[in-house]
Design a protein that fits this description.
The chain has 121 residues and is α+β, with helices and mostly antiparallel strands. Helices cover 36% and strands 31% of the residues.
Length: 121
């Protein structure tokens, strides 16, 4: 069952705009990120990501500024539509609520955020 869940998670990651976000081009397009964890330091985000559900690294880490402070967000996907992001939240919600006691949520950004570390599904 663990292998099936890992395969499912890998498939879900491949359906995102992950490849597009690698370019980091600025855009006025609204981009939707499915966030599974938000941290004050890059190391905390890495620790969370490396000890994720089913012992796989599954999210990329994005840098953001909130109220003047830098935060690092572990994201399970990047999408160009809110509907796709909402679908992803539903797909991964059971993984994170059952394994990590966290609830995935949608972060909306104008253009692509700075990806500081790419996950490896």
């Amino acid at each position: 069952m663990k292998a099936t869940l890992i395969t499912l998670l890998m498939l879900l990651m491949s359906t995102s705009l992950f490849a597009q976000s690698r370019g980091q081009q600025k855009s006025s397009q609204t981009v939707y990120y499915v966030v599974v964890g938000s941290f004050e330091s890059l190391q905390e985000a890495r620790n969370y990501n490396n000890n994720g559900p089913f012992d796989v690294v599954c999210g990329s880490i994005y840098k953001a500024t909130v109220n003047g402070k830098t935060v690092y967000r572990v994201c399970a996907g990047v999408f160009n539509s809110k509907a796709k992001a909402q679908k992803k939240v539903k797909e991964v919600n059971w993984i994170y609520t059952s394994q990590r006691d966290t609830t995935p949520w949608i972060w909306t950004n104008k253009g692509y955020a700075k990806c500081v570390e790419h996950g490896e599904p």
